[in-house]
Design a protein that fits this description.
Elements (H helix, E strand, L loop, with lengths): L18 H6 L2 H31 L4 H4 L10
Length: about 80
């Protein structure tokens, strides 16, 4: 059997500088990272909604501080 020298072909990643990344890439790991990020975002949204509902429940002081015609953002 004759040994044929390696010929580099278009699209070959053998000597590509990102080869270690491709060999270590795990789709399952990426999905876990995305799921964790999604949970963090959902928790942050819940926290912001809680804060917003607390702010909306406070008496509006802008009525007292604003002049005539400027209540509720009207000019």
């Amino acid at each position: 059997m004759e040994i044929v020298p390696y010929e580099k072909k278009r699209g070959d990643t053998k000597d590509h500088h990102l080869s270690p990344w491709f060999s270590n890439f795990s789709e399952a790991d990426e999905l876990l990272k995305l799921a964790a990020a999604q949970l963090q975002v959902q928790a942050h949204i819940a926290k912001l909604r809680t804060q917003l509902s607390m702010i909306e429940g406070m008496p509006h002081q802008s009525k007292v501080l604003s002049g005539p015609g400027q209540q509720f953002g009207h000019i």
